[in-house]
Amino acid sequence: MMSRRTLLLGGLLAPPLLNLLALEKPSDKKHTRTKRLPLPSDIHLLDLRHDFEEYNYRAPYQFGGRTVDRVTLLNVRVKVETPSGRNASGFGSMPLGNAWSFPSQVVSYDQTLEAMKRLATEIRDITAAYSETAHPIDIAWELEPAFLNAATALSGKMKLSEPIPKLCTLVVASSFDAAIHDAYGKANGINCYQGYGPQYMSHDLSFYLGPKFKGEYLDQYLLKKPTESIYLYHSIGASDPIFASDIKHRIGDGLPETLDEWIQSDGVTHLKIKLNGADLKVDVDRMIQIDKAATEAQRRRGVTQWKYCCDFNERCKDVNYLLTFLEEIKRQSPASLTRLQYIEQPTARDLKSNLQNVMHAAAKIVPVVIDESLVDLESYQLSRQLGYTGVALKVCKGQTNALLMAAAAQKFKSFLCVQDLTCPGASLIQSAGFAAHIPGVSTIEANSRQYVPSANEKWKDRFPSIFEIHNGQLGTGVLTGPGLGAV
After folding, report:
1. Cα separation of 226 and 189, whole Å?
2. Cα separation of 420 and 210, whole Å?
């Protein structure tokens, strides 16, 4: 049993609720099918297909001690039908992101990517065999256990040294989930965010999130219309050049390359700083150098207000590293600390195995949010017990998952932010539409324009306000079309 001394950190004791058995869960009907007559708006799957697209990055992206220089997109197309015979097609797309969702010291990049591709075929077959007529939320809810079982079986079949993580399975399933939500909206002639109220859903939120949500529906936690614009969080990878002197060889493709150039070009006022968490001095120095560059660039633009977030991608060995980092930033660059909006996933994603890393002391200084850890309601509840005060919502974990976690986070007054997985094209449109419908969300990370702009080419003319950044913002008010809005 964990001792009281082990739980003590930064002079704070984790609250007595730190009991895994006490985590509130939905009813015993979790992930089970209920007998009911379909609603007129429900859909039945007629056809389901998937394919892959490959793109190389224009520049490598370093985060969490890993470097990514390519992306594989999983594209899904689905045909559906309502009980009255209305047909529609839907499209979903998402980067597989194996370096982030399946990081491993013993399974190679190529092996984890192959596992995700093979899992996509398994998920396609499971989903195609689904015979019910239902709402997209219920389709995803009922199929998730089968997806996880398929991942377990595939791990054994491929003899992987580490099993496919739940996060990884969610990422693979997200393209299928997106396509079904898209088709649902189109079949009913509505934007999908209009289809999450009692008129369209057979269950209230208590069915998915527990009794505290009795009588509530998702539409209570969503804006009826997308916000007109949302601020972009510009990503600064751990090896990205800050000053011109940092560039050894220019790419020369006409796009910005230094931080100053990006700020001048796109007018960005929100900077997401990737830190490696391996060397405190290196991390502190990089933060200070970025603040120095940003201060000069914003001065030239006449801007006096801008924000940072720091993402360690779970690389801090413990919470003491984070606390010392914050102390040093306060001592050496107090202005940087005042600009710091939140810290993202500083320590290991496996919360149950790292209960000693309570975040209460750090969260008193700045909100601390989970990202990699957030895979379901139980992980969210545990993070709150451990002192995390916010969540990073991502549609790459599934439209269904993101909506449910957004409702839970609002219910319990957590800090909210929306991140991406270097999402290009349709996946960025989905992510932007999601962010624009969540109350309290004013920013979104969207870095495909930096690292893989080639994957945006066929979309940018149709949605220039999403793919061309002005004054540091995406114009999200245009995402009102049927389905996910990417007509």
Report:
1. 17
2. 28
In a domain, 5, yes or no: no
Beta strand pairing call for 66-81 and 87-95 = antiparallel
d(CA 437, CA 476): 10
Element (H, E) at 218: none
Measured distance CA(8)–CA(11) in Å, rounded:
6
CB 177, CB 143: distance < 8 Å = no
Length of the chain equals 487
b/e per residue 147-177 (b: at least 16 CB within 10 A): bbebbeebbeebebeebbbbbbbbbbbbbbb
How do the residues of the chain divide into helix, strand and coil, expressed in percent and rounded to 5? 40, 20, 40
**pLDDT at residue 274 in the model:** 98
Pairing outcome for strands 443-445 and 229-236: parallel
20 found inside a domain: no
Asked if residue 422 and residue 329 are part of one domain, the reply reads yes
Cα 179 versus chain centre, distance: 17
Residue 306 token pair: 């801008």
* Residue 164 DSSP symbol: P
CA 296/CA 9 separation, integer angstroms: 38
- Give the model's pLDDT for residue 73: 98
Cα separation, 319 vs 308, whole angstroms: 20
Number of helices and strands in the chain (H, E): 17, 12
SS3 of 15-79: the string is CCCCCHHHCCCCCCCCCCCCCCCCCCCCEEEEEEEEEEEEEEEEEEEEECCEEEEEEEEEEEEEE
Same domain, 289 and 425: yes
Tell me the per-residue pLDDT of 203-235, one tens digit each, with 9 for 90 and over: 999 999 999 999 999 999 999 999 999 999 999
Cβ–Cβ contacts within 10 Å for residue 440, how many? 13
**Chain CA centroid to CA 280, Å:** 27
Distance CA 417, CA 440 (A): 9
CA dihedral 45, 374, 64, 350 (to 10 degrees): -120
Spatial contact of 175 and 373, defined as CB atoms under 8 Å apart: no
Residues 205/217, Cβ–Cβ less than 8 Å: yes
Q: What is the pLDDT of residues 7-38, one digit of tens each?
A: 333 434 444 445 654 555 554 445 666 667 89
Domain that holds residue 48: 44-203
Closest CA to 341 of 320, 368, 301, 322: 368
**Are residues 289 and 171 located together in one domain of the fold?**
no
Does 32 fall in a domain?
no
